[in-house]
Amino acid sequence: MAPHPFTILSIEETRIARDVVLSLHPDSVVDFREIFLKEPNKELMKQYLEFEHTAQPGQSAQSKRPPRLAKCQYDIIGADKIPEYHESIIDVETRKREKHEVIGKQFHASLTLWEFDHLVKACDESEEFQNILKEFKLPDGFELVIEPWPYGGLDFGAENRRYFQGLCFAQNMKSGNPDSNFYAYPLPIIPVMDAHTRKICRVDRLATGGKGDGLTGKTHSERILDHCEQAEYVPELLSGGTRTDMKPINISQPEGTSFKVTDSSLVEWQKWSFRVSFNPREGAVLHDVRYEGRSIIYRLSLSEMSVPYADARAPFHRKQAFDFGDGGAGNCANNLTLGCDCLGVIKYFDAVIVGSDGEPKKHPNVVCLHEQDNGIGWKHTNWRTGRAVVTRQRELVVQFIITLANYEYVFAYKLDTAGGITLEVRATGIVSVVNIDFGKTSDYGNVVSGGVLAQNHQHIFAARVDPAIDGHNNTVIYEESHTAPWDKETNPNGNFYEIRKTVVNRSEGLDAAPQHNRTFKIINPNKKNKHSGNPVGYKFQPPPTQKLLASPGSLQAQRALFAQHHVWVTKYEEDELYAAGRYTLQSQLEVGGVHDMVKRKDEVTNEDLVVWSVFGLTHNPRVEDWPVMPSEIFQVHFKPSDFFERNPAIDVPSTKNEASVLTNECCSTSQKL
Amino acid sequence: MAPHPFTILSIEETRIARDVVLSLHPDSVVDFREIFLKEPNKELMKQYLEFEHTAQPGQSAQSKRPPRLAKCQYDIIGADKIPEYHESIIDVETRKREKHEVIGKQFHASLTLWEFDHLVKACDESEEFQNILKEFKLPDGFELVIEPWPYGGLDFGAENRRYFQGLCFAQNMKSGNPDSNFYAYPLPIIPVMDAHTRKICRVDRLATGGKGDGLTGKTHSERILDHCEQAEYVPELLSGGTRTDMKPINISQPEGTSFKVTDSSLVEWQKWSFRVSFNPREGAVLHDVRYEGRSIIYRLSLSEMSVPYADARAPFHRKQAFDFGDGGAGNCANNLTLGCDCLGVIKYFDAVIVGSDGEPKKHPNVVCLHEQDNGIGWKHTNWRTGRAVVTRQRELVVQFIITLANYEYVFAYKLDTAGGITLEVRATGIVSVVNIDFGKTSDYGNVVSGGVLAQNHQHIFAARVDPAIDGHNNTVIYEESHTAPWDKETNPNGNFYEIRKTVVNRSEGLDAAPQHNRTFKIINPNKKNKHSGNPVGYKFQPPPTQKLLASPGSLQAQRALFAQHHVWVTKYEEDELYAAGRYTLQSQLEVGGVHDMVKRKDEVTNEDLVVWSVFGLTHNPRVEDWPVMPSEIFQVHFKPSDFFERNPAIDVPSTKNEASVLTNECCSTSQKL
């Protein structure tokens, strides 16, 4: 049987796509970047899903299957020519190319990890860089480490070539441990590589001054690392070792999990069903999310994030990663480990990844799936009788974790027994740091350790929700609660407040307004709740986090126009998946992102629409973020709002958990009161 | 050995206090309301704690012990007189009265649960009420249920007597089950009892109309319950029963807990230490919270909450509970059950409660203490070596749950391995409802079931933080991040943003400002972080939830002036524990609350100060909140900010949890990919 249309390409399918591309460029060197599932056209999928969910036993949806397509991204390398970036759509069943685009030079393909290797090699080979390096006397036993980064926004007016930059550190290798934390020893130089020539074309020197030293204050003392301090996190190097008094918490499911996974990608759990896929850019994606067969979301994904740095000194304005568009969240996904990244009974999903030769291989354990308890779900005690009924909230978690050089992000989709869907992001890892002269402080960040300035920055995330509330024709409204005027006829005691509803008629960007309790509802205007008479819907309150701070018109702001609003509502258009546009690497302007989409001013009432949720963190580091920062947690909650006819968790059993014990029954170390 | 000064009064101590009071009022009838620990004078406690934490082995802090005091609240009942409300402070060691106050008639003592019984009895005995009741034909097998409520704010100009009101419902007793959900059958009458005469003095008739019916639209059909629908939540009455496919999640600690409890009230866990107490008004309180012996918080408590309803129709403006001041959160605390309210290895704390005769008895299991896992604490992968170090975030949870008629609240203090303290509130239980005519909808709420209007309302909580950041002299500042002007000299690329700091010099009320990333820091200006040079501190971002919506000057607004701001900073004064003042029952104006405290305009820099955090929920009910609402969760996070010299969780071990398993290893029901 052929795979479900939302199931990712198998290794075999990926290889077919690769071979077709190679056969179509017989006289060229083809350097592959990505090969992954081109998701089916939505109109075809609507028909397929409609058939699949209403099919009688024995009826097969196979005949309705849309074509099985692979998106192939690759460079064509010619002698002495700048490589040409191509994108092809290959039908892996007919082995035909359905579409072919040569992407213009104004856009840069997302980076690949092997381009990072080129940078390290170019530094090795660069006489200029090696000479500059000699200006610094590294302490004995220290070795250079180059941390490749995307180049950031190409300065206005600069020549449009492909670049990479390297942040430089020194690593204490006296212990022989390659995981000694080199970020504690930043060097104030940034080599820049021309990606076409694979040569270092420039070495930027970084200011190391503090308050009052202006934009260019540089010490460049040859003993620049002498005031830096060791800051280890791997347990075997940790001064003082790890604590020994933390007793294990074990989570077990002796009767098995409440979820099941069938047909590779279909997850069913507590009346929910959905498909999981994974792609190099967005990581894990949920499709066709339903509750008791009722459609809620067609596609749910993390779409983009931007991390602009606020240090005013050049070239730090170019520290601005787009971690989905530049390098691909899926590419950077961790291979998860049982008992570390998730506790309990875990189901892992693998993905497929390709090398520059297009050869696919398994990318194991990139997504984990498990159930967890989230405290009291609902409770009521009848105080007359003393009868308490208490149920737990159970969650199903789809999680993936990415590492982007120093930082990590933990992304999770959580479905719960109350019909809610929560998007959770945890930011952890190591903050990005630069050298600062001994004894100085700075307006650009916080000194978190000797000589180490953790620069102020923001993380702005965009999630994409393609809703299908009981069907694809939906409307977005927002509701606010307002103090009503004190009025003898309508509000004689001054306690009344009114709920104001606003329909989003045309595509636009909107903001959170917690002072008015602004709540967005995605409704199906064609179906009403039998009790309330309101249209069925799901609601969310956008986290009212600070928006992008970079000045309007600046490189940082222009590249991330999606960060201008907390919520965007757009009409569904094929292939519009990315909040900051398809091509973010070295961009000077967001092109084809949500800011462009809303310019169409499409009608979005009773339409197939998309809702984008933008939220983030202004991260002015604290000393406690060093050397590895404790997770900062963000959540966006989507909750049913008159979608159901009662609390969907009302039938969750209030069974007593028999494994729970009193401290004095469990062990000898705890004390009795 | 005498109890620690923060340990609650024992049954014996409580009885002594009772006996002393009785002996001082020999010729009167004494009706007790509460007897509980009067916490020691702070100046004395500072000295005691200083000695306790620096004492050499063998040295005893006993000689520094402040007096052991009981606060006794009681009515003196005279023949035909309105009872007189008294408060006495009794020294339970010397058996002497230290203070005696006769509270003036302008204030009402908090209610007791036995006053609710009086109301039910008065309704039984009231001819007027019984006659009105006969206007309604209850369905066969239905019985009246009266839900006593505080009277709410006394209308401006009304006679100042003590009243109680009863919300009326009918219960389907055909099943014989006394836990059948009577809230599904609301009756449109409210009997009002004069608490002094214990007689029904008035029966208010409620409007049952909908949109367009104005403030007084009443149907009062005798068959008013015919369009109501059964809405059960106890499992044995649930139509369709409970789901059967939810497999248990068991949490175990085979090596015991990581915490220990000694000396009745001292909790030590993962470098944290604190004392737990419990009182009738605030429930669980934390005292002397320290990390590695360094003081952080002197006292942490939930202080007040107000729940005003927005239905414009009289007498609903008087639906406004102050659940701490009116009835006492501690009095309404649930006796918690193992395996239901908390999972894992649990330690319970008991409290002591008195009857109207002052006789104390154990109030068992009112607080639970347990550890839990909260996902990934920090993680970093060195992508060069592939080495991942991942640690879990562990939390210690101090939880109590209260039932206030229809509603419940789950309050938790969570301490974590990253040095953070989280206050969590979950709102659950049954929304407050009134009858609405068949087929109508309303501007005052949402129809969640046939004939049942769930009225719009707010929940506004106030937490009280008495900080002691490395000592008692602290300062509050707030920091904001602002776009900086684009300027060739200081911000040539437009990416710089500036951090603006404001010192709170004098006591005042302040607001959240998420658009500026406004972050409050409680600092010790006398001690600097060795890396950053910043004063050591803890920070929090006030949740920017909507403030009170009732019109300024209205009864609801005047009674809850604390709800005018998200943050209040006041200078510490003895006995200022309650955000809305000591006496909230039937208040017309907040007296002695934070709004009055800030009027002193005390200097609060480098002072012993108190920070109040106000947050809440505008709750416009959805159908999914019926019949029991899924928990709505609120959290306030206090995090170290340059308090430590590195991430305090950096030494948490990254040990693999050996109990975690793959789905295909755990059971047969899950499917392999």
From TrEMBL, chains A, B:
Keywords, alphabetical: Copper, Disulfide bond, Metal-binding, Oxidoreductase, TPQ
GO molecular function: copper ion binding; primary methylamine oxidase activity; quinone binding
Assigned EC number: 1.4.3.-
Cofactor: Cu cation
Organism (species): Pseudopithomyces chartarum
Lineage: Eukaryota, Fungi, Dikarya, Ascomycota, Pezizomycotina
Modification after translation, per record: Topaquinone (TPQ) is generated by copper-dependent autoxidation of a specific tyrosyl residue.
InterPro entries: Cu_Am_ox_TPQ-bd, Cu_amine_oxidase, Cu_amine_oxidase_C, Cu_amine_oxidase_C_sf, Cu_amine_oxidase_N-reg
SUPFAM superfamilies noted in UniProt: Amine oxidase catalytic domain (SSF49998), Amine oxidase N-terminal region (SSF54416)
Assembly and binders: Homodimer.
Protein name: Amine oxidase
PROSITE patterns: COPPER_AMINE_OXID_1
Gene Ontology biological process: amine metabolic process
Domain Copper amine oxidase catalytic: 249-650
Active site: D323, Y407
Residue positions where 2',4',5'-topaquinone is found in the record: Y407
Bound cofactor: record note: Contains 1 topaquinone per subunit.
Similarity remark: Belongs to the copper/topaquinone oxidase family.
Main EC class the enzyme belongs to: oxidoreductase
Pfam families: Cu_amine_oxid
